[in-house]
Amino acid sequence: MKTRDKILLASLELFNGRGERNITTNHIAAHLAISPGNLYYHFRNKSDIIYEIFLEYEKLVDFYLDIPEERPISLEDLTFYLESVFDGLWSYRFFHRDLEYLLDSDRRLRQDYREFTNRCLDAISRIFEKLADAGIIQPQPDELRSAMSLNVWLVITNWMAFLKTAHALEESTSLTLTELKQGIYQVLTLEIPYLTESYREQVMALREKYRPRLPESVEMTGSAGG
Amino acid sequence: MKTRDKILLASLELFNGRGERNITTNHIAAHLAISPGNLYYHFRNKSDIIYEIFLEYEKLVDFYLDIPEERPISLEDLTFYLESVFDGLWSYRFFHRDLEYLLDSDRRLRQDYREFTNRCLDAISRIFEKLADAGIIQPQPDELRSAMSLNVWLVITNWMAFLKTAHALEESTSLTLTELKQGIYQVLTLEIPYLTESYREQVMALREKYRPRLPESVEMTGSAGG
DNA sequence: CTATTATTAGAGTATATACTCTAGTGAGTC
DNA sequence: GACTCACTAGAGTATATACTCTAATAATAG
Question: Residues 103-122, chain B: which have Cβ within 8 Å of A?
Fold first, then answer.
């Protein structure tokens, strides 16, 4: 593998593991056992590394969220969309963590991310539309559909932060992909009231699959013995 | 005003304005025209400053979210809760921005914040319960109510980040409290399907008040002509 | 006044951070 | 062998960051 690609891969790994803020270019170089100079031969600066990683992320999500225009969508499609989006979120999880700082430091990234967000919101909205076409949910007026799409987006993008901050586990215990996907449970919760009678049971069963196994994950001051 | 309080106030102001990550203790001291040594006489380190600011924030929100046990709650109460929570979020808006890093750097803060989150979730859940008691929304089974409360929390705490990142405006144009409160529109969107017939119109009218005035705020690549 | 305590200034420090500069190496080409 | 060119090493640098130290000043108590 080319050094350039190794740098991108190692950066992503380190960023995901310890947060972009805690990882310096020297860390990345040391992790790969290359010199800082070598790293800076391949990338002008840290921002450029992050930007390229974002482009990968963007490409991945855009690929997943390519909603077919002709054919109707099914419950399987919905499952695929949700699973894929959370997979993407997991693979590039450092990104949303320091999002505001990253966007403040890089104009290109800021602009691209804004467009990316809007594409995602459109995709979510189209999914709602097609779910209604397929008779899975009741059709909604445009305005409600956009507001709901936005709520879905907020839940999806904030789910990981919630887990990491409100989680009962200590910092050492890292998150698992399974826990992350409990976000799907939350997203499906948003759709419950709009389900049609004919699909209600199926969707509720799907949702049940993602239900948090250990309720203690959001446990409070609760009994220590638990 | 005592130097100690001035430090807390200036820190909050600077953190809110430019992000905790971009503000050093030296910045804070310079802003107040005091010496770094003076600052460190009053606070052991930067974390301690942040921790004390969090305690204020916590106190404020706990005060607002003190749900009365005896009397039923009204729509006015709901409005008050929403307005207050977003006011709090606004006043301490730096906090959620760098949340993960802050919690990673300070165990006390991590623990306290976790409990704080759980108290908030409980409060939201109790509000739902009492809204149902008051006949404003339909009663929900416990499990659905917790999942919905969590969604409300996710929307509330992520709303600001969304505005700052997806906003069409440039970085220089700062957020206004009015824009922030459009988050109330999003929260009320979550409740729409559960409204009772007798209150539907009133709540929809309330929601309308917070509707984003300029739809361009979430505008996409849309027609340049506007 | 004297002694004590709270507060402040301001220079200083160890470390980190993002990044630069010079000097190469090794594979291929003519 | 001379030359190019992608790639790499490693020491070095300017600046920033969080924080410390010493000494001085203001406030207060006896």
Answer: 103-104, 110, 113-115, 117-119, 121-122
What CATH number should be reported for the domain whose range is B45-218? 1.10.357.10
Report the residue of B89, B125, B151, B185 to disrupt the A interface, i.e. the one with the largest count of A CBs within 10 Å.
B151
Q: What is the pLDDT of residues B163-205, one digit of tens each?
A: 988 875 555 566 777 788 899 999 999 999 999 999 999 999 9
* Residue B218: pLDDT band with limits 50, 70, 90: very low
pLDDT, tens digit (0-9, with 9 covering 90-100), for A139-154: 999 999 999 999 999 9
Amino acid at A173: T
Residue B61 half-sphere exposure, CB side, CA atoms within 13 Å?
27
Q: What residue ranges of chain A are covered by domains with CATH 1.10.357.10?
A: 46-216
Give the CATH number of domain B1-43. 1.10.10.60
- Residue A225 has phi, psi (to 5 degrees) of -65, -25
Share of chain A above pLDDT 70, in %: 91
- The CATH classification number of A46-216 equals 1.10.357.10
Burial class (CB in 10 A: 0-12, 13-18, 19+), A141: exposed
